[in-house]
Specification:
The complex is a heterodimer of chains A (about 120) and B (about 110).
Chain A (H helix, E strand, L loop, with lengths): L3 E4 L2 E4 L5 E7 L5 E8 L3 E10 L2 E4 L7 E2 L9 E3 L8 E8 L12 E2 L3 E5 L1
Parallel strand pairs in A: 2-11
Antiparallel strand pairs in A: 1-3, 3-8, 4-5, 4-9, 5-6, 7-8, 9-10, 9-11
Chain B lengths: L2 E5 L2 E5 L4 E8 L5 E7 L6 E7 L4 E4 L2 E6 L4 E6 L8 E8 L7 E3 L3 E6 L1
Parallel strand pairs in B: 2-11
Antiparallel strand pairs in B: 1-3, 3-8, 4-5, 4-9, 6-7, 7-8, 9-10, 9-11
The chains are: A mainly beta (about 120), B mainly beta (about 110).
Amino acid sequence: EAQVTQNPRYLITVTGKKLTVTCSQNMNHEYMSWYRQDPGLGLRQIYYSMNVEVTDKGDVPEGYKVSRKEKRNFPLILESPSPNQTSLYFCASSSPGLAGSSYNEQFFGPGTRLTVL
Amino acid sequence: KNQVEQSPQSLIILEGKNCTLQCNYTVSPFSNLRWYKQDTGRGPVSLTIMTFSENTKSNGRYTATLDADTKQSSLHITASQLSDSASYICVVSLNQAGTALIFGKGTTLSVSS
């Protein structure tokens, strides 16, 4: 089944304790992104990757790191989490549009609910 | 400033009724407009994607319209079902790749029996 998976789905941690949220897709997609979703603010992009070893900042990158060593994986790293990073996080992937297509479709993972105490 | 505004913020309707959700955007450059359905605690799922040359697209009971001149879009849900209860998010993409998306804050729809 074509899908984007995230782990863990739920995480409660304490301020300053490094953590990694994994994201994996089995659709051979080139593009991958991380978003956070907060009440009243909607989805905001943290980082995105156009391909292996190619990453770039989104709208809210402060306090986050990413890496793209393999095409299928795009982990999100919080080196020193703080309470303001408590949020619902989504990973997404997409591929360049088919020949003649003018867009590509993004597939979202199930989400990771992170609480930083 | 690129913005996507959705209305209403929330909506309650009876099962079987129709409803229309609105989306206004001020985004440049414009590549395409997407509607997503997001169930509580789940990831968004794509309903429709339209480029500026498409003014309507359907997906089952969901029909989206786009007026590129007025920069407005709507999502019409026909014969609503309890399973339609969700947040509906309007998203404008600045590029074909979908790596630069401007998200609306969503409309929360509750369908009651």
